[in-house]
Specification:
heterodimer; A: 586 residues; alpha/beta; Leucine-rich repeat, LRR (right-handed beta-alpha superhelix); three-stranded parallel beta sheet; 13 helices; B: 167 residues; mainly alpha; Potassium Channel Kv1.1, Chain A; 2 domains; three-stranded mixed beta sheet; 3 strands; 55% helix
Chain lengths: 586, 167
């Protein structure tokens, strides 16, 4: 049978099947058609084909192009179902077959839609290593799909072998009135061919990823899209000034990043102006000039700033006077300020990454739920809240060199923990390069008190000496009392058990069995009795392991060393932790 | 039995609706749950009657849809809990059950559930040989061997070698 004859037959099949559908979408009040599943009546020929076409299309839309195409072999009624789907996505990464086949399938499939005058609601194409063969095909079909097939959601994502190459997007697509969501990657909105008509007024989503676009072209587009809700600009070249203003009163989310996959190399002099008082989410990565003439952003819920230049004054703007709906605030590696005061009643999640030693931070967030910070220990740190149940996650680095006194560093940790002592604290200590002789046990300063910590994570280098480990633990327990201690954030537990060099873990396992320590050749008993003041507060130490795909920690009972613990375990554990039970700190 | 309280204090009796299946059984549903279905919402806006007769949805299916609507209308549940409810809702269900569910959600216009169920149905078909799907859903192969070979030849890209061997 030739293809033409089969197509004709397929068309007839389709028509007859549409007639036999047992339900129409708006048949709530309609009399129920009889189901005659038991005998071979005309429309209940099998368990799935009787579903109406829109539902079958819906189901097929979750399959890959290959899988959807395979359904054509099920039976005649399925022959053309996949090739009439209202949403199609050609993804080279999910396609099995070479580029040539990919392009010919794309061409043939779209020709089929074109010949039958079918509509496409969503069209997506994603290609790797775009070459000169692919370009003419894209140039041919993109305008047809966009202008003649009524596409609402258009996604063109191209990746070129050559990093500086772009696809010169036919600008005629900007005349597509039906377009609602536009996703572009690796495209160029050419300047040579100036944009004179922008007809889509219904655009809701504009997503540009590694797109070359001039300021004029962008302004032309954005000024026509007054219904726009989501603007995402990642790694766009040429776009030095970005302005969204009160024209865009439906804007919900603005997301800018100067880096995505490749650097644009235009980080410093770019300026962003957002003057949409109704915006709900702002995310900016890498920008030195962020402006807004409006003071009040009454709907802003989430503000994420990464590598953005701020000043101490910016923190006035972050206050509840101007941002009364702000729930999530993330400041990550922002610069331009040392001292700051943040007061906001609505903030529930606060993340402050890239803290500097020179920072003087004063935070007043009455309704905090989660506070996270990472970086150096700030010069001063105060934290106020009236929240009753909240958590904090603190990750501190140290590059303490031989000139610094490590003991004072521990006291600084204590001051941060004191400020957060009303929360359930998770503390992580990272990146140590210390000499053990810099760790000694000084006297506690007056008013000093160890803080209870729910979880302590230690993520530092594995080959510490034994004396370093014991001195480190003593210093640590001087400033905090962990309920649980996880050895390392990055190694797996099996390595822990098998690496003899892992002195800290070995040391901790020895604490497990204080009674036997005299027999242990590794410990100088005299030294241990003298230094381990914290032993008196410690009621119990236990070791627990976590298996892959497990749901909870399992306590390892009755073992005296890590090796013997490993021997009694049924499987290889994924994680290991130590539990400490402390006497009440008075 | 229709109360006249309009979103009153907590003590006020919540509005409810009676939905009757095609088998004639009646279900009492809170209005807040019912309006999650676009179709039911339209009906409730148009008429005063608190009894809705669904002539093409059976008892079993309707009970499941109502369980879904009630869960999603519960303000006390977090979005995460609702999501995991959705996952459990479709897992382990027979294909026929899903089929009637997808029809019912399409009729009642419960977009989220329709999406979840359709996706689950696609997951069942994913990575399966044509023969398996035919067998599983009693699809009669009405192609001649020649026509079948022709389709395979035309869309050769859609089949990888492994499956050709298995067939």
């Amino acid at each position: 049978m030739n293809r033409g004859a089969m197509e004709e037959q397929g068309q007839n099949e389709r028509v007859s099947r549409v007639r036999t559908k047992i339900l129409s979408p708006c048949s709530v009040e309609k009399q129920a058609p009889e189901r005659e599943d038991d005998d071979g009546s005309s429309y209940s020929m099998d368990r799935i084909s009787q579903l109406p076409q829109p539902i079958l299309h819906h189901i097929l839309s979750f399959l890959s192009q290959n899988e959807a195409a395979q359904t054509s072999l099920l039976s005649k009624s399925w022959r053309y179902l996949w090739s009439t789907l209202p949403n199609i996505e050609f993804r080279e990464d999910c396609f099995n077959g070479n580029k040539e086949t990919f392009l010919s399938v794309l061409d043939k499939t779209l020709q089929g839609y074109h010949d039958q005058k079918l509509c496409i609601q969503e069209f997506g194409v994603k290609m790797w290593k775009v070459d000169s063969e692919s370009i003419p095909l894209l140039e041919k079909w993109i305008p047809i799909v966009t202008l003649n097939m009524g596409v609402k959601n258009l996604s063109i994502c191209l990746d070129f072998l050559q990093r500086s190459a772009y696809f010169d997007l036919p600008l005629v697509i900007f005349e597509a009135k039906s377009l609602q969501d536009l996703y572009l990657g690796g495209c160029k909105l050419s300047q040579n061919n100036p944009l004179d008509k922008v007809l889509f007024k219904n655009l809701r989503t504009l997503y540009l990823n590694q797109v070359y676009v001039t300021v004029e072209t962008f302004e032309k587009i954005i000024s026509n899209c007054t219904l726009i809700e989501y603007v995402t600009l990642h790694g766009c070249k040429g776009l030095r000034t970005i302005k969204v203003n009160k024209l865009h009163k439906y804007l919900k989310c603005f997301d800018f990043s100067n880096f995505y996959g490749r650097y644009t190399g235009e980080e410093d002099d770019r300026s962003i102006e957002i003057d949409v008082p109704t915006v709900e989410t702002i995310k900016i990565v890498g920008c030195n000039n962020w402006y807004h003439h409006h003071k009040y952003f009454l709907h802003l819920k989430s503000l994420y700033l990464n590598k953005v230049r701020l000043s101490s004054k910016s923190f006035d703007f972050f206050s509840c006077n101007y941002l009364p709906s702000l729930k999530y605030l993330t400041l990550s590696y922002c610069n331009g300020f040392n001292e700051f005061h943040l007061f906001n009643r609505s903030i529930e999640h606060l993340i402050f990454d890239g803290m500097m030693e020179s920072n003087k931070a004063s935070v007043d967030v009455p309704n905090i739920v989660m506070f996270e910070c990472e970086g150096e220990i700030p010069e001063s740190f105060s934290f106020n809240t009236t929240s009753i149940k909240w958590k904090s996650n603190v990750i501190l680095w140290s590059y303490v060199n031989s000139d610094n006194d490590a003991s004072s560093w521990f006291l600084k940790i204590n001051s941060v923990l004191q400020a957060l002592s009303q929360s359930e604290i998770s503390l992580g200590l990272l990146q140590f390069r210390w000499k053990s002789n810099r760790l000694h046990n000084g006297e506690d300063p007056p008013g000093h008190k160890p803080v209870l910590v729910a979880q302590l994570k230690l993520g530092f280098y594995c080959h510490e000496s034994f004396s370093f480990s014991s001195a480190f633990i003593s210093n640590l327990f001087r400033v905090c009392r962990p309920r649980y201690m996880v050895r390392d954030m990055y190694t797996n537990a099996r390595d822990e058990f098998e690496t003899k060099h892992n002195q800290l873990t070995e040391f901790l396992s020895l604490i497990l069995h204080r009674d036997q320590r005299d027999e242990c050749p590794n410990i100088n008993c005299q030294e241990m009795r003298h230094d381990y003041f914290w032993r008196h507060d410690l009621e119990e130490v236990s070791m627990e392991v976590f298996y892959q795909n497990g749901k909870e920690w399992h306590r390892v009972e009755g073992t005296s060393s890590l090796e013997s613990a490993a021997a009694v375990m049924p499987n290889s554990p994924q994680k290991v932790r130590f539990g400490f039970k402390w006497k009440e700190i008075s | 039995m229709v109360t006249t309280d309009e979103k009153g204090p907590l003590t006020a009796k919540k509005k409810s609706v009676i939905i009757r299946s095609c088998d004639g059984d009646e279900f009492l549903v809170s209005e807040s749950a019912a309006v999650l279905s676009t179709s039911l919402k339209k009906i409730l806006e148009e008429k005063e009657d608190r009894l809705i007769h669904l002539s093409d949805i059976d008892n079993k299916t309707l009970a499941m849809v109502i369980a879904y609507l009630s869960t999603h209308a519960d303000d006390g549940l977090s979005d995460d809990l609702k999501r995991s409810f959705d996952q459990e809702f479709v897992s382990g269900k027979e294909f026929d059950v899903l089929k009637y569910l997808v029809l019912a959600t399409d009729t009642l216009q419960v977009t989220c559930l329709c999406y979840t169920v359709a996706k689950k149905m696609a997951d069942i078909m994913k990575n399966k040989l044509v023969e398996w799907v035919r067998r599983e859903f009693d699809i009669q192969n009405d192609y001649t061997p020649e026509a079948e070979a022709e389709i395979r030849r035309l869309d050769a890209w859609a089949w990888d070698d492994r499956q050709l061997e298995d067939d």
